[in-house]
Amino acid sequence: MSVAATRGSRMEKWYRRLLALYPKDHRREHAEEMVGVLLAADGDAQARAAKPVAWALRFGQHTADSADLVGGALRIRGRIALNRLKRAHWLSWTVRDQRWSDALAVVSVVAPLLLLVAALTEFRIPRAVASSITGHPHWELTATLGLADLPMAAGAPGVILLVFLRLRRLAGLGALATAIGQVAAGAVPAFAGYADPAVAFTVLLSGTAAVALLLSPGPDRGLALLTRSGTALVGAAALILGGFSVGGDVWFGPGNDGAPTQSDNVGGTVAGLPADLLIAAVLVGVAAACLRAPVSRRVLVLLAIPVIPYAFLWQEKLAVDLFGPPGGGSAIISSSIPLLYLPPLLLASLVLFGTWFARRRAGERDRQVASATA
Amino acid sequence: MQEPTFLILTALAAGAQHGYGIMSDVARISDGRVRLRAGTLYAALDRLKADGLVTGDKEEIVDGRLRRYYRITDEGTAELAAEVGRLRANAAVAASRLGLAGGTA
Fold first, then answer.
1. CA of B29 to nearest chain A CA: how many angstroms apart?
2. Nearest CB to A71; choose among B39, B47, B65
Protein backbone atom coordinates (compact mmCIF):
# COMPACT_ATOMS: atom_id res chain seq x y z
CA MET A 1 0.00 0.00 0.00
CA SER A 2 1.40 3.43 -0.97
CA VAL A 3 2.10 6.17 1.60
CA ALA A 4 -0.77 8.29 0.24
CA ALA A 5 -3.17 5.35 0.45
CA THR A 6 -2.12 4.58 4.04
CA ARG A 7 -2.54 8.22 4.99
CA GLY A 8 -5.93 8.33 3.23
CA SER A 9 -7.09 5.29 5.15
CA ARG A 10 -5.87 6.80 8.43
CA MET A 11 -7.70 10.04 7.71
CA GLU A 12 -10.84 8.21 6.71
CA LYS A 13 -10.80 6.43 10.07
CA TRP A 14 -10.35 9.75 11.83
CA TYR A 15 -13.19 11.40 9.91
CA ARG A 16 -15.46 8.43 10.57
CA ARG A 17 -14.67 8.74 14.28
CA LEU A 18 -15.69 12.39 14.16
CA LEU A 19 -18.83 11.56 12.20
CA ALA A 20 -19.91 9.48 15.19
CA LEU A 21 -20.72 12.83 16.78
CA TYR A 22 -23.56 13.29 14.29
CA PRO A 23 -27.08 12.03 14.93
CA LYS A 24 -27.69 8.48 13.74
CA ASP A 25 -30.18 9.48 11.02
CA HIS A 26 -27.81 12.08 9.61
CA ARG A 27 -24.95 9.57 9.64
CA ARG A 28 -27.01 6.99 7.80
CA GLU A 29 -28.01 9.55 5.20
CA HIS A 30 -24.77 11.48 4.66
CA ALA A 31 -21.76 9.74 6.27
CA GLU A 32 -20.51 8.02 3.10
CA GLU A 33 -20.75 11.07 0.88
CA MET A 34 -19.23 13.30 3.59
CA VAL A 35 -16.21 11.00 3.86
CA GLY A 36 -15.92 11.13 0.07
CA VAL A 37 -16.08 14.93 0.05
CA LEU A 38 -13.57 15.25 2.90
CA LEU A 39 -11.05 12.97 1.21
CA ALA A 40 -11.57 14.67 -2.16
CA ALA A 41 -10.99 18.10 -0.58
CA ASP A 42 -7.89 16.76 1.12
CA GLY A 43 -6.50 15.40 -2.13
CA ASP A 44 -7.30 18.66 -3.88
CA ALA A 45 -5.36 20.66 -1.29
CA GLN A 46 -2.34 18.42 -1.71
CA ALA A 47 -2.46 18.74 -5.48
CA ARG A 48 -2.56 22.53 -5.26
CA ALA A 49 0.28 22.75 -2.75
CA ALA A 50 3.92 23.19 -3.59
CA LYS A 51 6.02 20.47 -1.97
CA PRO A 52 7.69 22.50 0.83
CA VAL A 53 4.37 23.73 2.15
CA ALA A 54 2.35 20.60 1.42
CA TRP A 55 2.67 19.21 4.93
CA ALA A 56 1.65 22.48 6.61
CA LEU A 57 -1.23 22.92 4.19
CA ARG A 58 -2.40 19.36 4.73
CA PHE A 59 -2.20 19.75 8.49
CA GLY A 60 -4.12 23.05 8.36
CA GLN A 61 -6.78 21.61 6.07
CA HIS A 62 -7.10 18.51 8.22
CA THR A 63 -7.45 20.51 11.46
CA ALA A 64 -9.94 22.95 9.94
CA ASP A 65 -12.04 20.12 8.47
CA SER A 66 -12.04 18.31 11.81
CA ALA A 67 -13.14 21.43 13.68
CA ASP A 68 -15.77 22.10 11.01
CA LEU A 69 -17.10 18.54 11.35
CA VAL A 70 -17.45 18.97 15.11
CA GLY A 71 -19.14 22.36 14.56
CA GLY A 72 -21.51 20.83 12.00
CA ALA A 73 -22.44 18.04 14.42
CA LEU A 74 -23.13 20.59 17.15
CA ARG A 75 -25.25 22.71 14.79
CA ILE A 76 -27.34 19.75 13.65
CA ARG A 77 -27.78 18.40 17.17
CA GLY A 78 -28.63 21.91 18.42
CA ARG A 79 -31.22 22.31 15.67
CA ILE A 80 -32.79 18.95 16.48
CA ALA A 81 -32.91 19.81 20.19
CA LEU A 82 -34.46 23.21 19.41
CA ASN A 83 -37.09 21.64 17.16
CA ARG A 84 -37.92 19.13 19.88
CA LEU A 85 -38.28 21.97 22.38
CA LYS A 86 -40.56 23.83 19.99
CA ARG A 87 -42.68 20.75 19.37
CA ALA A 88 -42.95 19.83 23.04
CA HIS A 89 -45.99 21.37 24.67
CA TRP A 90 -44.28 22.37 27.86
CA LEU A 91 -46.50 22.44 30.88
CA SER A 92 -49.57 22.12 28.76
CA TRP A 93 -50.33 18.51 29.50
CA THR A 94 -53.98 18.31 30.23
CA VAL A 95 -55.62 15.64 32.24
CA ARG A 96 -57.16 13.15 29.82
CA ASP A 97 -60.38 12.59 31.73
CA GLN A 98 -62.72 15.41 30.73
CA ARG A 99 -64.43 15.60 34.13
CA TRP A 100 -61.15 15.88 36.05
CA SER A 101 -59.88 18.34 33.47
CA ASP A 102 -62.99 20.50 33.95
CA ALA A 103 -62.78 20.16 37.73
CA LEU A 104 -59.16 21.35 37.64
CA ALA A 105 -60.21 24.25 35.40
CA VAL A 106 -62.78 25.35 38.01
CA VAL A 107 -60.16 24.99 40.75
CA SER A 108 -57.78 27.11 38.65
CA VAL A 109 -60.26 29.97 39.20
CA VAL A 110 -61.22 29.20 42.79
CA ALA A 111 -57.82 28.41 44.29
CA PRO A 112 -56.07 31.67 43.20
CA LEU A 113 -59.10 33.59 44.47
CA LEU A 114 -58.94 31.82 47.82
CA LEU A 115 -55.22 32.46 47.93
CA LEU A 116 -55.75 36.19 47.43
CA VAL A 117 -58.42 36.33 50.14
CA ALA A 118 -56.12 34.39 52.48
CA ALA A 119 -53.28 36.84 51.77
CA LEU A 120 -55.49 39.90 52.26
CA THR A 121 -56.73 38.62 55.58
CA GLU A 122 -53.29 37.44 56.65
CA PHE A 123 -52.14 41.01 56.40
CA ARG A 124 -55.40 42.22 57.97
CA ILE A 125 -56.18 44.45 55.06
CA PRO A 126 -59.97 44.07 55.30
CA ARG A 127 -59.78 45.04 58.97
CA ALA A 128 -57.59 48.04 58.21
CA VAL A 129 -60.03 49.13 55.48
CA ALA A 130 -62.95 48.68 57.86
CA SER A 131 -61.07 50.65 60.50
CA SER A 132 -60.40 53.53 58.10
CA ILE A 133 -64.08 53.62 57.16
CA THR A 134 -65.59 53.25 60.63
CA GLY A 135 -62.86 54.99 62.56
CA HIS A 136 -62.71 52.05 64.97
CA PRO A 137 -59.66 52.73 67.14
CA HIS A 138 -58.60 49.12 67.60
CA TRP A 139 -58.79 47.89 64.04
CA GLU A 140 -55.71 49.57 62.70
CA LEU A 141 -53.27 47.67 60.52
CA THR A 142 -51.11 45.86 63.03
CA ALA A 143 -49.34 43.29 60.90
CA THR A 144 -45.92 44.16 59.57
CA LEU A 145 -44.34 42.41 56.63
CA GLY A 146 -41.53 40.06 57.58
CA LEU A 147 -39.40 37.78 55.45
CA ALA A 148 -41.78 34.87 56.10
CA ASP A 149 -44.69 36.91 54.73
CA LEU A 150 -43.03 37.67 51.40
CA PRO A 151 -44.13 34.53 49.51
CA MET A 152 -47.79 35.22 50.24
CA ALA A 153 -47.51 39.02 49.98
CA ALA A 154 -45.95 38.79 46.51
CA GLY A 155 -47.25 35.41 45.37
CA ALA A 156 -51.00 35.70 45.90
CA PRO A 157 -51.53 39.03 44.06
CA GLY A 158 -48.95 37.99 41.47
CA VAL A 159 -50.82 34.78 40.67
CA ILE A 160 -54.15 36.62 40.34
CA LEU A 161 -52.52 39.25 38.10
CA LEU A 162 -51.05 36.57 35.83
CA VAL A 163 -54.42 34.79 35.70
CA PHE A 164 -56.04 38.09 34.64
CA LEU A 165 -53.37 38.55 31.98
CA ARG A 166 -54.25 35.04 30.78
CA LEU A 167 -50.72 33.82 31.40
CA ARG A 168 -51.89 30.48 32.77
CA ARG A 169 -48.59 28.65 32.84
CA LEU A 170 -46.72 31.54 34.40
CA ALA A 171 -49.51 31.87 36.97
CA GLY A 172 -49.11 28.15 37.72
CA LEU A 173 -45.37 28.55 38.14
CA GLY A 174 -46.03 31.60 40.35
CA ALA A 175 -48.36 29.54 42.55
CA LEU A 176 -45.72 26.80 42.74
CA ALA A 177 -43.10 29.39 43.75
CA THR A 178 -45.52 30.71 46.40
CA ALA A 179 -45.91 27.21 47.85
CA ILE A 180 -42.15 26.57 47.79
CA GLY A 181 -41.47 30.02 49.28
CA GLN A 182 -43.80 29.32 52.19
CA VAL A 183 -42.24 25.90 52.77
CA ALA A 184 -38.79 27.50 52.74
CA ALA A 185 -39.94 30.24 55.14
CA GLY A 186 -41.49 27.58 57.37
CA ALA A 187 -38.10 25.91 57.70
CA VAL A 188 -36.81 28.97 59.59
CA PRO A 189 -37.48 28.25 63.27
CA ALA A 190 -38.22 31.89 64.08
CA PHE A 191 -41.20 31.90 61.73
CA ALA A 192 -44.59 30.31 62.16
CA GLY A 193 -43.43 26.85 61.10
CA TYR A 194 -45.24 24.06 59.36
CA ALA A 195 -47.35 23.08 62.35
CA ASP A 196 -49.51 26.20 62.02
CA PRO A 197 -52.81 25.21 60.34
CA ALA A 198 -52.98 28.60 58.59
CA VAL A 199 -49.56 27.97 57.03
CA ALA A 200 -50.56 24.43 56.02
CA PHE A 201 -53.75 25.83 54.47
CA THR A 202 -51.95 28.44 52.34
CA VAL A 203 -49.08 26.08 51.39
CA LEU A 204 -51.50 23.39 50.20
CA LEU A 205 -53.75 25.97 48.57
CA SER A 206 -50.80 27.38 46.58
CA GLY A 207 -49.82 23.86 45.56
CA THR A 208 -53.37 23.01 44.50
CA ALA A 209 -53.59 26.27 42.53
CA ALA A 210 -50.29 25.43 40.81
CA VAL A 211 -51.46 21.93 39.81
CA ALA A 212 -54.83 23.24 38.61
CA LEU A 213 -53.26 26.06 36.56
CA LEU A 214 -50.59 23.87 35.02
CA LEU A 215 -52.63 20.76 34.27
CA SER A 216 -56.01 22.14 33.27
CA PRO A 217 -57.23 24.09 30.23
CA GLY A 218 -57.18 27.08 32.58
CA PRO A 219 -59.37 29.76 34.16
CA ASP A 220 -61.19 30.61 30.91
CA ARG A 221 -62.67 27.12 30.84
CA GLY A 222 -63.24 27.27 34.61
CA LEU A 223 -65.18 30.54 34.37
CA ALA A 224 -67.26 29.12 31.53
CA LEU A 225 -68.18 26.17 33.76
CA LEU A 226 -68.97 28.24 36.84
CA THR A 227 -72.62 29.25 36.86
CA ARG A 228 -73.85 32.36 38.66
CA SER A 229 -74.91 30.38 41.73
CA GLY A 230 -71.61 28.52 41.61
CA THR A 231 -69.73 31.81 41.59
CA ALA A 232 -71.77 33.06 44.56
CA LEU A 233 -71.02 29.87 46.48
CA VAL A 234 -67.34 30.13 45.66
CA GLY A 235 -67.31 33.77 46.76
CA ALA A 236 -68.97 32.95 50.08
CA ALA A 237 -66.64 30.04 50.69
CA ALA A 238 -63.64 32.17 49.76
CA LEU A 239 -64.59 34.86 52.26
CA ILE A 240 -65.19 32.40 55.04
CA LEU A 241 -62.21 30.17 54.36
CA GLY A 242 -59.81 32.99 53.58
CA GLY A 243 -61.04 35.16 56.43
CA PHE A 244 -60.82 32.49 59.02
CA SER A 245 -57.73 30.79 57.69
CA VAL A 246 -55.41 33.11 59.56
CA GLY A 247 -57.31 33.33 62.81
CA GLY A 248 -60.88 33.98 63.82
CA ASP A 249 -60.28 37.60 64.76
CA VAL A 250 -59.85 38.68 61.14
CA TRP A 251 -63.49 38.60 60.19
CA PHE A 252 -65.09 38.26 63.55
CA GLY A 253 -63.17 40.89 65.41
CA PRO A 254 -60.71 40.67 68.27
CA GLY A 255 -61.60 40.28 71.95
CA ASN A 256 -63.56 42.92 73.82
CA ASP A 257 -60.47 44.89 74.78
CA GLY A 258 -59.40 45.04 71.16
CA ALA A 259 -55.80 44.21 71.95
CA PRO A 260 -54.42 41.28 69.99
CA THR A 261 -54.01 38.43 72.43
CA GLN A 262 -53.27 34.77 72.06
CA SER A 263 -56.97 34.00 72.21
CA ASP A 264 -57.58 36.35 69.25
CA ASN A 265 -55.42 34.15 67.11
CA VAL A 266 -57.57 31.13 67.67
CA GLY A 267 -61.02 32.54 68.01
CA GLY A 268 -62.95 35.78 68.27
CA THR A 269 -65.00 36.23 71.37
CA VAL A 270 -67.26 38.70 69.56
CA ALA A 271 -68.64 36.21 67.12
CA GLY A 272 -68.26 33.15 69.29
CA LEU A 273 -70.31 30.05 68.68
CA PRO A 274 -72.67 31.60 66.06
CA ALA A 275 -69.62 32.24 63.87
CA ASP A 276 -68.56 28.61 64.22
CA LEU A 277 -71.99 27.51 63.13
CA LEU A 278 -72.01 30.01 60.24
CA ILE A 279 -68.66 28.72 59.00
CA ALA A 280 -69.82 25.13 59.30
CA ALA A 281 -73.09 25.96 57.54
CA VAL A 282 -71.30 27.64 54.63
CA LEU A 283 -68.91 24.72 54.25
CA VAL A 284 -71.67 22.14 54.42
CA GLY A 285 -73.78 24.22 52.00
CA VAL A 286 -70.94 24.48 49.50
CA ALA A 287 -70.18 20.75 49.85
CA ALA A 288 -73.86 19.82 49.40
CA ALA A 289 -74.14 22.05 46.33
CA CYS A 290 -71.02 20.45 44.90
CA LEU A 291 -72.34 16.92 45.28
CA ARG A 292 -74.92 17.35 42.53
CA ALA A 293 -72.75 17.07 39.42
CA PRO A 294 -69.74 14.84 38.57
CA VAL A 295 -67.49 17.83 37.84
CA SER A 296 -68.40 19.74 41.00
CA ARG A 297 -67.93 16.55 43.06
CA ARG A 298 -64.40 16.45 41.72
CA VAL A 299 -63.98 20.15 42.49
CA LEU A 300 -64.99 19.36 46.06
CA VAL A 301 -62.39 16.59 46.31
CA LEU A 302 -59.67 18.84 44.92
CA LEU A 303 -60.52 21.73 47.22
CA ALA A 304 -60.70 19.37 50.19
CA ILE A 305 -56.92 18.90 49.86
CA PRO A 306 -56.04 22.40 51.11
CA VAL A 307 -59.16 22.75 53.27
CA ILE A 308 -58.32 19.79 55.55
CA PRO A 309 -55.89 21.87 57.70
CA TYR A 310 -58.57 24.53 57.82
CA ALA A 311 -60.73 22.07 59.77
CA PHE A 312 -58.11 22.24 62.52
CA LEU A 313 -58.50 26.02 62.69
CA TRP A 314 -62.22 25.65 62.90
CA GLN A 315 -62.12 23.10 65.72
CA GLU A 316 -59.54 25.19 67.58
CA LYS A 317 -61.90 28.15 67.39
CA LEU A 318 -64.81 25.94 68.38
CA ALA A 319 -62.84 24.66 71.38
CA VAL A 320 -62.07 28.22 72.50
CA ASP A 321 -65.69 29.25 72.08
CA LEU A 322 -66.96 26.24 73.97
CA PHE A 323 -64.31 25.78 76.66
CA GLY A 324 -62.51 29.11 76.86
CA PRO A 325 -59.02 30.20 75.70
CA PRO A 326 -56.04 27.84 75.74
CA GLY A 327 -54.80 27.37 79.25
CA GLY A 328 -58.32 27.24 80.64
CA GLY A 329 -59.48 24.90 77.89
CA SER A 330 -57.70 23.32 74.95
CA ALA A 331 -58.19 22.51 71.29
CA ILE A 332 -60.26 19.42 70.67
CA ILE A 333 -57.47 18.03 68.49
CA SER A 334 -54.03 19.67 68.71
CA SER A 335 -52.59 20.34 65.29
CA SER A 336 -49.31 18.67 64.41
CA ILE A 337 -47.33 18.34 61.19
CA PRO A 338 -48.48 14.75 60.44
CA LEU A 339 -52.10 15.62 61.17
CA LEU A 340 -51.99 18.74 59.03
CA TYR A 341 -50.16 17.38 56.03
CA LEU A 342 -50.67 13.61 55.85
CA PRO A 343 -54.46 13.58 55.28
CA PRO A 344 -54.25 16.10 52.39
CA LEU A 345 -51.34 14.20 50.85
CA LEU A 346 -53.25 10.94 51.28
CA LEU A 347 -56.26 12.48 49.56
CA ALA A 348 -54.09 13.80 46.72
CA SER A 349 -52.53 10.32 46.33
CA LEU A 350 -55.99 8.75 46.25
CA VAL A 351 -57.04 11.16 43.51
CA LEU A 352 -53.92 10.35 41.50
CA PHE A 353 -54.30 6.60 42.01
CA GLY A 354 -58.02 6.75 41.26
CA THR A 355 -57.53 8.61 37.97
CA TRP A 356 -54.69 6.28 36.96
CA PHE A 357 -56.79 3.22 37.76
CA ALA A 358 -59.82 4.62 35.92
CA ARG A 359 -57.70 5.34 32.85
CA ARG A 360 -56.23 1.86 32.93
CA ARG A 361 -59.64 0.30 33.21
CA ALA A 362 -60.92 2.45 30.33
CA GLY A 363 -57.90 1.37 28.25
CA GLU A 364 -58.59 -2.31 28.96
CA ARG A 365 -62.25 -1.83 28.06
CA ASP A 366 -61.26 -0.19 24.77
CA ARG A 367 -58.89 -3.06 23.98
CA GLN A 368 -61.60 -5.61 24.74
CA VAL A 369 -64.06 -3.77 22.49
CA ALA A 370 -61.44 -3.55 19.74
CA SER A 371 -60.60 -7.27 19.94
CA ALA A 372 -64.32 -8.16 20.02
CA THR A 373 -65.03 -6.11 16.90
CA ALA A 374 -61.93 -7.51 15.18
CA MET B 1 -30.68 34.70 4.34
CA GLN B 2 -27.14 33.91 5.45
CA GLU B 3 -24.36 34.12 2.90
CA PRO B 4 -23.48 30.36 2.80
CA THR B 5 -27.15 29.55 2.23
CA PHE B 6 -27.37 32.14 -0.53
CA LEU B 7 -24.25 30.79 -2.19
CA ILE B 8 -25.36 27.14 -1.95
CA LEU B 9 -28.73 27.98 -3.51
CA THR B 10 -26.94 30.03 -6.18
CA ALA B 11 -24.64 27.07 -6.94
CA LEU B 12 -27.64 24.77 -7.30
CA ALA B 13 -29.64 27.29 -9.36
CA ALA B 14 -27.56 26.32 -12.43
CA GLY B 15 -28.33 22.61 -12.00
CA ALA B 16 -28.02 19.63 -9.67
CA GLN B 17 -24.61 19.17 -8.06
CA HIS B 18 -22.95 16.80 -5.61
CA GLY B 19 -21.41 17.93 -2.32
CA TYR B 20 -17.89 18.47 -3.53
CA GLY B 21 -19.22 20.21 -6.66
CA ILE B 22 -21.19 22.66 -4.49
CA MET B 23 -18.11 23.40 -2.37
CA SER B 24 -16.01 24.11 -5.46
CA ASP B 25 -18.76 26.17 -7.08
CA VAL B 26 -19.31 28.27 -3.95
CA ALA B 27 -15.58 29.04 -3.86
CA ARG B 28 -15.74 30.02 -7.53
CA ILE B 29 -18.89 32.17 -7.16
CA SER B 30 -17.50 34.03 -4.16
CA ASP B 31 -14.15 34.45 -5.89
CA GLY B 32 -12.45 32.29 -3.26
CA ARG B 33 -13.76 34.40 -0.38
CA VAL B 34 -16.08 31.70 1.00
CA ARG B 35 -14.71 28.19 1.31
CA LEU B 36 -17.31 25.81 2.64
CA ARG B 37 -16.12 22.74 4.48
CA ALA B 38 -17.94 19.43 4.71
CA GLY B 39 -19.35 20.00 8.21
CA THR B 40 -20.79 23.40 7.33
CA LEU B 41 -22.03 22.28 3.91
CA TYR B 42 -23.90 19.23 5.16
CA ALA B 43 -25.35 21.07 8.16
CA ALA B 44 -26.65 23.70 5.69
CA LEU B 45 -27.93 21.07 3.24
CA ASP B 46 -29.68 19.29 6.09
CA ARG B 47 -31.45 22.53 7.09
CA LEU B 48 -32.28 23.47 3.50
CA LYS B 49 -33.75 20.01 2.91
CA ALA B 50 -35.82 20.31 6.08
CA ASP B 51 -37.06 23.71 4.90
CA GLY B 52 -37.95 22.27 1.50
CA LEU B 53 -35.58 24.56 -0.42
CA VAL B 54 -33.31 21.76 -1.62
CA THR B 55 -33.93 18.10 -2.35
CA GLY B 56 -31.88 15.02 -3.10
CA ASP B 57 -31.45 14.08 -6.77
CA LYS B 58 -29.64 11.15 -8.36
CA GLU B 59 -26.91 9.08 -6.74
CA GLU B 60 -23.85 7.51 -8.33
CA ILE B 61 -20.78 5.59 -7.25
CA VAL B 62 -17.48 7.10 -8.37
CA ASP B 63 -14.21 5.36 -7.44
CA GLY B 64 -16.09 3.27 -4.91
CA ARG B 65 -17.51 6.33 -3.16
CA LEU B 66 -21.15 7.42 -2.97
CA ARG B 67 -21.88 10.69 -4.70
CA ARG B 68 -25.31 12.20 -4.10
CA TYR B 69 -26.60 15.11 -6.14
CA TYR B 70 -28.78 17.89 -4.81
CA ARG B 71 -31.07 20.20 -6.69
CA ILE B 72 -32.94 23.36 -5.81
CA THR B 73 -36.74 23.06 -5.42
CA ASP B 74 -39.34 25.51 -6.77
CA GLU B 75 -39.65 26.89 -3.28
CA GLY B 76 -35.89 27.30 -3.10
CA THR B 77 -35.86 29.08 -6.46
CA ALA B 78 -38.58 31.48 -5.27
CA GLU B 79 -36.70 32.11 -2.03
CA LEU B 80 -33.46 32.78 -3.89
CA ALA B 81 -35.25 35.10 -6.35
CA ALA B 82 -36.80 37.01 -3.44
CA GLU B 83 -33.38 37.33 -1.79
CA VAL B 84 -31.85 38.55 -5.07
CA GLY B 85 -34.62 41.17 -5.26
CA ARG B 86 -33.93 42.30 -1.70
CA LEU B 87 -30.19 42.48 -2.24
CA ARG B 88 -30.67 44.32 -5.54
CA ALA B 89 -32.99 46.89 -3.92
CA ASN B 90 -30.58 47.39 -1.01
CA ALA B 91 -27.66 47.68 -3.38
CA ALA B 92 -29.56 50.25 -5.48
CA VAL B 93 -30.27 52.35 -2.40
CA ALA B 94 -26.67 52.08 -1.24
CA ALA B 95 -25.37 52.98 -4.69
CA SER B 96 -27.72 55.91 -4.95
CA ARG B 97 -26.71 57.23 -1.55
CA LEU B 98 -23.07 56.80 -2.31
CA GLY B 99 -23.71 58.72 -5.51
CA LEU B 100 -25.44 61.50 -3.58
CA ALA B 101 -22.60 61.62 -1.09
CA GLY B 102 -20.13 61.81 -3.95
CA GLY B 103 -22.16 64.58 -5.58
CA THR B 104 -22.41 66.78 -2.56
CA ALA B 105 -18.88 66.32 -1.28
1. 17
2. B39
